[in-house]
Amino acid sequence: MVSRKPGKIHDTDEVVPADLMKYEDTLNAIDGSDVVYFAVGLPADTEMWEDRFPVIMENVIKACEETHSKLAFFDNTYMYEKNANVQTETSPFRPVGRKSKVRAKMAEMLLSAMKDGKIEALIGRAPEFYGPDLTQSITNSLIFNRVKDDKKAIVPVSASVLRTLIWTPDASRALALLGNTPDAFGQTWHLPTDKSITYKKLIEITEEVTGKNIKYTVVPMWVFKIGSLFNKQVKELMELLPRYKYDNIFNSNKFKQRFPDFKITTYKEGIQQVFKK
């Protein structure tokens, strides 16, 4: 476990403090690793993303090359076209917005290093996520957490378009499986999800699980635009919101066919865990 102030999740974890903006720290953290899992997160701050993510990616690639460590990169879908109804591993990068361009640049840096034979790596790409406990996601924040607090749920832009969400523990297990599968390297993989779903249906499942009659409001784009003038978090969210106007179907058939025994958490199973007491 590597971060500036790492903490153990399991008793057997080894923790390494490191500032990944510094190459020597990155090298020290990676040295001796067979497989490196890049799951670095930064706050939703566009300038921070632009300043730090490319440097961190460059340091990690260079350190993996120097130590001959394999790299499994946990990626997102920001670089895909916002109205690309079906996303596959071969979907072209058409980033719109500053954060999207940063994520495209990171993926391209790694793909270039892979193509040049500098490192052995793979990309595990995930769509928007939801999860247990203190998961920080749009769906958790606007729907599940508000339901827990007996507040009206908020649906961004549309309740009727199809979205694809990944259960965070599934994403972790899938990336670990890929990292331990030799023939998975050299490729991009969409991590496995349940079928695509509308927010309307997701709320219906939540009602079934909780036994509550859940009221929700659909917040249109113009309301978010006004909010962005006064709230930095809403401003940072604006780049992603246009995607909520279109069906967004994330295809993970490649993974499902290669690993048919992988147990994918259904939305009902995931929501049961979200509201487990």
From TrEMBL:
Family annotation (Pfam families): Epimerase
Gene3D superfamilies reported for this sequence: NAD(P)-binding Rossmann-like Domain
> Which stretches make up the NAD-dependent epimerase/dehydratase domain?
10-185
List, alphabetically, the InterPro entries matched.
Answer: Epimerase_deHydtase, NAD(P)-bd_dom_sf
- The name of this protein is NAD-dependent epimerase/dehydratase domain-containing protein
